Amino acid sequence: MSQIEAVDVEISVVLGRSVLPMQQLLRMGRGAVIPLDATEKDEVWILANNHPVARGEIEIRDDRIAITVTRTADVYDFMAGQA
């Protein structure tokens, strides 16, 4: 195995964002719902080690959730909070 193949990369998917006052966040308990600035049709952000690398679409396959990569990510859009 080459050294590159031995490197672990953490993949995260960001569905949306929300801005809440700290007081509201502290009052939330189990089962609380946090509204996001996204709809079910919006692309998601795909992050590698917390760095945006791609955009994708959510797919439901049987009882599993999958992400289809649709395009590369624009880091400036991610930092600006754009969808």
Description:
Belongs to the FliN/MopA/SpaO family. Residues 3-72 form the Flagellar motor switch protein FliN-like C-terminal domain. This protein is 14% helix and 35% strand. By secondary structure, it is of the alpha+beta class. The relative contact order is 0.20. The longest helix has 6 residues, at 22-27. Strands 1-2-3-4 form a 4-stranded antiparallel beta sheet, with no helix packed on it.
Notable traits:
83 residues; alpha+beta; 4-stranded antiparallel β-sheet; 2 helices
Strand and helix map with partners:
Elements: E1 11-14, H1 22-27, E2 44-48, E3 51-61, E4 64-72, H2 75-80
Antiparallel strand pairs: 1-2, 2-3, 3-4
Pfam family, one: FliMN_C
Protein name: FliM/FliN family flagellar motor switch protein
InterPro entries: FliN-like_C (IPR001543), FliN_T3SS_HrcQb (IPR001172), SpoA-like_sf (IPR036429)
User: How much helical structure, as a percent, in the residues?
Assistant: 10-25%
User: What structural class do you assign from the helix and strand content?
Assistant: alpha+beta
What would you report as the Rg, rounded to the nearest angstrom?
16 Å
How many beta-strand runs? 4
Q: Beta fraction of the residues?
A: 25-35%
Strand sequence of the main sheet, in spatial order? 1-2-3-4
Q: What is the chain-wise order of helices and strands? A: EHEEEH
Mean pLDDT level: 89
| Poorly predicted residue ranges | none
Biggest sheet, in brief? 4 strands, antiparallel
- Envelope shape: globular
Number of helices: 2
Q: How far apart are the termini?
A: 38 Å
